[in-house]
Structures are given as structure tokens and as C-alpha cells.
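Input C-alpha cells:
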């Protein structure tokens, strides 16, 4: 956990299964003050490539309310086969399903040779 000015940043990732990775927690940002674009407490909206923000009601510790945003976080996956690569499993899905990572190797459905060896 790290505190930067008025932002609280949390990060962490859990890895499950050998060829399928799913984040249990990603990166999260908390910002006190008014929600953007007139959003009201309880409203959520998409943020960035794969993230979601939620407007928060005032609390004892955040008297003006605020909003939180969560995203996928960071992955570090060591691949033993240089012909394999990682890809987002469902990039067009909403958060957090859009965070799911899959490893593709020769012979796998959806394998694209142009992505192997870091060529893309």
C-alpha cells in the first residue's frame, strides 16, 4: 500500500492455474472530492483500457465523498517456450473479466505466430 498526496494506491495479483491467470486484486486508486462529470454515489463507469470507477458517498473519513477506480494491475509471467505469448482472454469484456490473461502456444486455439518471440 502506498499513499501519494491525496491518492491511496493498492496493488496485488493472484495467479491461478498453469495456463490461465486471473487477478484477485488489481491496482486501485481512491480520490476524495467530487465525482467527475456529475456522477452520483453508487454510479460506476468504465475507465481506461480495462478498469472501473465508482462514485462514493461521504463518510466519516471522507466528508466530501469521492470515487475509487480499479484496474487489472501488473502481471509477471515467465514463459519457458519462446513460441508462446500472453494475451487478454476477453479484452472486450467489462472489468474485471477483461483482465483475464491466457498463454497461447503452438497448437492452441487462437494461436497467432506473429505474436511469438515478442515480435508484436
Amino acid at each position: 500500500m502506498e499513499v501519494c498526496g491525496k491518492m491511496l494506491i493498492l496493488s496485488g495479483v493472484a495467479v491461478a492455474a498453469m495456463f490461465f491467470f486471473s487477478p484477485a486484486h488489481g491496482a486501485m486508486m481512491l480520490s476524495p472530492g467530487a465525482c467527475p462529470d456529475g456522477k452520483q454515489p453508487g454510479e460506476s463507469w468504465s475507465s481506461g483500457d480495462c478498469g472501473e470507477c465508482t462514485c462514493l458517498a461521504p463518510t466519516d473519513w471522507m466528508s466530501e465523498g469521492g470515487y475509487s477506480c480499479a484496474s487489472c494491475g501488473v502481471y509477471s509471467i515467465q514463459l519457458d517456450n519462446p513460441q508462446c505469448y500472453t494475451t487478454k482472454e476477453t479484452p472486450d469484456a467489462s472489468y474485471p473479466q477483461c483482465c483475464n490473461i491466457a498463454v497461447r502456444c503452438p497448437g492452441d486455439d487462437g494461436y497467432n505466430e506473429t505474436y511469438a518471440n515478442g515480435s508484436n
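The beta strands are 2-4, 7-10, 20-21, 27-32, 44-46, 51-56, 66-71, 85-88, 101-104. The chain has one domain: 2-118.
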